[in-house]
């Protein structure tokens, strides 16, 4: 279904660009940039934030760029066709914004050496393929600390999407943050096996609350869990967007993705002819991860969160600082060291204290 | 680890989850019993969700929003009816087109409402009954959509089985040539059946955007229209089995979340697939036992009167 839809959109946007009716010379000066989204731009989460970044590019660079996007692109072979069509439609810079677009992006990039590609959250690069990501785990460490302070039952409820390294690292970071405040914190994890299914995310939140979790965190894209938490008078953390409107009495903070600075910088680089393949992993310090205002919590908790945030920005606190042990007790990071970036990006194990198994292992 | 409070909460969630599916599939069942296969359920649902939300948000009235959702579902079903019934186009293709159109339209209608929310439909509260342990919340603490879904189910089951209108509708679905020869307006009846399907799908969409998760987000139906379609087939086109199928699907999809929460270590991918597996197995077994009556004989076949 989505296949046909996204194809139609890709063709339509291609036609739209071709038939813009601009004089040839003027049209040639404009840089065509395209974005590929895994969800709908109206998800108010992951894809929505990427699209905010695209709009920021349009705003900042004005008539020097012409942007287009394709939403709801399924991860896998379908993505390859969409990206291929965008490349053929004359886009010179293409952002593919989901982990599952990694292989398709590389395949298409090989066939279009003159087109620059930017793949979000992946780890494979090429001469014309950059990768970029944000250190969401920095934010998750902070919310772990807040959760441990705010919880009365000592149980975090975590709504997870798919068992990929980024999501697992997020769970671990939150747990490490929580343990730094209360070593006995428990976490209940529910996988919904979807990035976006509001009703299911809401059901998952309610199930977790029914089972005694009184702080809800999510790694899915809709505000449904926040709304469910608000309805049950339980506190929660927003994801991707500031979800305070959905949980005025529930949201403690939200880990907000802000892609605008990166998108503007990279698009400008293409315009200047200075673009080279790179790997950027920005965090709170770089403004890519933004913590929404700390609300609905006592002043001392707020102060603690701000102190932790400042330490992360200053580089004195690493969320994956040692000692860290796996569930079976093996020491992964020694005291005084921190986990290497590549180990965070390929994480497939839980830290000690999580009473569950990584799905499929 | 299981106490009365959790079981009660699970039951209440199951009822809510099943209601969306029951509403959408009930309408499709009627359309299919009249011989039209409308694959546009997902599209009609999402348009219902978008229009319902937009209207409720604008007017401040959930009732008005619900009515608008029903009308929107009906309006989109007329697009399908015009193509598949009156122009006798391929029903599968027309239905798919309806869904694609619906998803696009809904995104457009809802674009201005992203990031807003409503107070959802109120839940029933009867002093003494709603507080009953285990079943209180599930039976006496739901929103109006749940009770309407039961009324609709009873009305559809009764009408199909016991009334003249039901008999004619089934005749049109089983053998449209014979029904035509008897003087029944085949295409008119099918159009009404499809419109009923559209109304129910719109209502199911409103249940999502006005009660279940009272906000608008594109694609918030997330494939429930397709599940509703499958339920109709597996129920062997019988309303009561449809009820069983919708509740079984709802039950397993809620239970698997709880099983995960208990951390039993069963792979979540398997648990996520479980609602589909359980529903398919159960309904296949039921229809096999009943050495089933199959699909309505004229299902999916366009009807063109000889002159």
From TrEMBL, chain A:
InterPro entries: ABC-Purine-Binding (IPR052910), Peripla_BP_I (IPR028082), PnrA-like (IPR003760). Residues 1-27 form the signal peptide. Coiled coil: none annotated. CDD domains: PBP1_BMP-like. Pfam families: Bmp. GO terms for cellular component: plasma membrane. Transmembrane segments: none annotated. The keyword Signal applies. The keyword Hydrolase does not apply. It comes from the Bacteria. Keywords: Signal. Residues 31-305 form the ABC transporter substrate-binding protein PnrA-like domain. This is Nucleoside-binding protein. The lineage of its organism: Bacteria, Pseudomonadati, Pseudomonadota, Alphaproteobacteria, Hyphomicrobiales.
TrEMBL record, chain B:
The chain crosses the membrane at residues 6-24, 36-56, 62-88, 95-114, 144-161, 192-213, 225-249, 270-289. One of its GO terms (molecular function) is transmembrane transporter activity. Keywords: Cell membrane, Membrane, Transmembrane, Transmembrane helix. One of its GO terms (cellular component) is plasma membrane. It holds the Pfam family BPD_transp_2. It is found in: Cell membrane. The keyword NADP does not apply. It is a multi-pass membrane protein. This is Nucleoside ABC transporter membrane protein. It comes from Ancylobacter aquaticus.
